[in-house]
């Protein structure tokens, strides 16, 4: 397997009439998926983009045609760059400039192409280069904690390496139906796209509006017979925060994967209490790797207090993880000793596109454990090994502070706050000028919690030097487009006061 399009070609050959994609406006079979993508590929070739390995921008809407544009770009021998349609002009221009794209496609640009008659077999012979292992697949820009977009370039080989490893661990059932929540301009959506292709599964692209109507969301999952979801924890938490399961429960759901941020244990415990027979799996990855690299399947006998963190688990078969002590650079093998996660895999991104300096700082080729030189990505995530040898996340390196002579993980404060009844979301920042920890909390509508009560409760759960100096109640903790806490916006809110 050298080209991800082989997955699509195989699915269209083996199960041509199986539903591949469905959104709020209709369905496409695998045959239709392939044929429409080929048409887009030939459209691009005729415009002069024939195996040029150039970036083609795609306005990444929440619909099946976005994926047609992605695959069509690959058929033309190029790579796609998803662009959030609601992105602010400044960031959009940065992505266009940084990627060097000459073309930004939208569904309107190719609507006539999709209705044309079939394409000739002769034209299909050069539709794509089957030998694309090291060829660019896609370039996705993420802002991370800085607010400045950075582009991770993935190859066909990297994605295939991930898809094969994950499928060996969690093979999709025959006729699997996956409910997609992740926007297609977010890197984590790629695992949904290519796992569905590999396993010839059906992707239900869930309308965004349903996530503000949680009862209707569950009704939709049941109507479409969704068996697997892979969502960010904030989307999963929505159902338990609003006590939706008291009225309706998913009836066809079997597998719940979650990725992108820490799932508050309080909310996961509610899911497990209401639906104990589902398979719950914590996934960990970063935008610098295709898919994920660590996973932890929650065991039936696992009992976690609301204040605990769920383990990140152990690496997929295609990944090697090394924990490195930040100050000494020594490899950590002991339990309960925190260090930075270094990740090595064939699934790693090729580079930060157009940023040689950042690439060289973040990707290093070294021999860390005496087994020979490997290419590692320095994730910036801090973790430790528990007594079972599983990695447990503590915080981002960016969120680690020195306060009152102590090294503190802001993420630990957030976990403690989220365990309190009445707190739905929270985000912690550090004011280095005034030397104080500031915690922003979003409380449940019926909560009567006030700052002093929260502080008193945290005093019981945290060391005195970790208790926030200031607690601010806000209507909504800001989330970015990926559903994660927007810490850049939190800092902006703080500095504006």
Give a concise summary.
The protein has 497 residues and is α/β, with parallel strands linked by helices. The chain is 31% helix and 26% strand. Among the domains are: 206-343 and 360-398, Rossmann fold (3-Layer(aba) Sandwich); 404-496, 2-Layer Sandwich (GMP Synthetase, Chain A, domain 3), CATH 3.30.300.
Would you give an account of this structure?
- Helix 10 links the parallel strand 10 and strand 11.
- Helices cover about 30% and strands about 25% of the residues.
- The chain is of the alpha/beta class and about 500 residues long.
- Among the domains are: about 205-345 and about 360-400, ANL, N-terminal domain (Rossmann fold, 3-Layer(aba) Sandwich), CATH 3.40.50.12780; about 405-495, 2-Layer Sandwich (GMP Synthetase, Chain A, domain 3), CATH 3.30.300.30.
- It has helices at about 5-15, 30-45, 65-75, 90-100, 105-115, 120-125, 155-170, 190-200, 215-225, 235-240, 265-275, 355-360, 410-420, 450-460, 485-495; strands at about 20-25, 25-30, 55-60, 80-85, 105, 135-140, 150-155, 175-180, 200-205, 230, 255-260, 280-285, 295, 315, 320-325, 340-345, 350, 365, 375-385, 390-395, 400-405, 405-410, 425-430, 435-445, 470-475.
- It is globular and about 70 Å long.
- The mean pLDDT is about 90.
């Amino acid at each position: 397997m050298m080209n991800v399009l082989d997955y699509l070609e195989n699915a269209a050959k083996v199960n041509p009439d199986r539903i591949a994609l469905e959104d709020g406006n209709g369905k496409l079979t695998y045959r239709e998926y392939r044929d429409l993508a080929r048409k887009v590929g030939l459209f691009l070739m005729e415009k002069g983009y024939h195996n040029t390995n150039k970036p083609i921008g795609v306005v990444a809407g929440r619909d099946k045609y976005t994926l047609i544009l992605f695959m069509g770009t690959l058929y033309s021998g190029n790579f796609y760059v998803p662009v959030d349609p609601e992105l602010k002009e400044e960031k959009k221009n940065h992505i266009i400039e940084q990627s060097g794209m000459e073309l930004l496609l939208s569904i309107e640009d190719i609507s006539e192409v999709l209705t044309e008659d079939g394409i000739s077999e002769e034209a299909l012979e050069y539709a794509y280069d089957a030998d694309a292992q090291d060829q660019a697949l896609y370039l996705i820009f993420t802002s991370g904690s800085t607010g400045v977009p950075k582009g991770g370039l993935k190859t066909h080989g990297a994605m295939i390496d991930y898809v094969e490893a994950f499928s060996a661990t969690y093979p999709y059932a025959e006729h699997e139906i996956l409910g997609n929540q992740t926007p297609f301009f977010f890197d984590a959506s790629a695992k949904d796209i290519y796992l569905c292709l590999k396993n010839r599964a059906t992707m239900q692209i869930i309308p965004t509006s349903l996530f503000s109507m949680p009862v209707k969301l569950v009704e939709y999952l049941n109507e479409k017979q969704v068996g697997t979801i892979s969502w960010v924890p904030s989307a999963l938490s929505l159902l338990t925060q609003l006590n939706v399961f008291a009225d309706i429960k998913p009836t066809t759901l079997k597998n719940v994967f979650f990725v992108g941020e820490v799932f508050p244990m309080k909310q996961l415990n509610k899911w497990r209490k209401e639906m104990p027979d589902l398979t719950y799996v914590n996934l960990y990855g970063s935008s610098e790797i295709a898919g994920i690299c660590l996973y932890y399947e929650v065991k039936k006998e696992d009992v976690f207090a609301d204040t605990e963190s769920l383990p990140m688990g152990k690496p997929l078969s295609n990944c090697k993880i090394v924990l490195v002590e930040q100050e000494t650079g020594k490899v950590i093998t002991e339990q309960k000793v925190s260090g930075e996660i270094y990740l090595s895999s064939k699934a790693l991104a090729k580079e930060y596109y157009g940023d040689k300096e950042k690439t060289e700082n973040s990707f290093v080729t070294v021999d860390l454990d005496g087994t020979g030189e490997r290419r590692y990505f320095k994730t910036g995530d801090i973790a430790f090994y528990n007594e079972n040898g599983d990695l447990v996340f503590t915080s981002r390196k960016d969120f680690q502070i020195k306060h009152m002579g102590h090294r503190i993980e802001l993420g630990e404060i957030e976990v403690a706050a989220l365990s309190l009844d009445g707190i739905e979301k929270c985000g912690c920042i550090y004011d280095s000028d005034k030397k104080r920890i500031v915690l922003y909390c979003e409380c449940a509508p019926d909560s009567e919690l006030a700052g002093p009560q929260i502080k008193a409760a945290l005093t019981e759960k945290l060391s005195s030097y970790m208790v926030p100096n200031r607690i601010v109640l806000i209507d909504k903790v800001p989330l970015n487009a990926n559903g994660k806490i927007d810490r850049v916006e939190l800092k902006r809110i703080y500095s504006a006061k």
